[in-house]
Amino acid sequence: MKFVKSRFLAGMLLTAAVQSAACADGGSGAMIPTGVTAEGGNIYISGKNLNPDKCAMDTVAIVRAANTDEANRMMSLAVSAMLSRHKISMWFIGCAPVPWAPSAPQVVSVALSDG
Predict the structure, then answer these.
(1) Is the whole-model pTM more than 0.90?
(2) Which of 1, 19, 68, 83 is the most exposed, fewest CB within 10 Å of its CB?
(3) How far is 87 from 101, CA to CA, in rounded Å?
(4) If pLDDT is split at 50, 70 and 90, which confidence band does 90 have?
């Protein structure tokens, strides 16, 4: 019974996360990162970010990864791009609160860009 209950709760949380992400406008774009910070369990990518959802900040984006492995991959891509001065493509989905401002764009996907 405990197993079924925990699977049900996990499913409900996943559904809520998908629904809230789907309700955001979102957008995508490419930029050269000028900084990458890991702080308080979050990853922040600095630079001239695109801000499709008109969040309060447009110079930093917060990475919202599905799990730790994905967060590590996104951070590695961002650091590699910053050090090599290459662009990364990012997919934004809504705004999220950050410690120093009401909100910043949420990044849910990062890829090296050739453009």
Answers:
(1) no
(2) 1
(3) 25
(4) very high
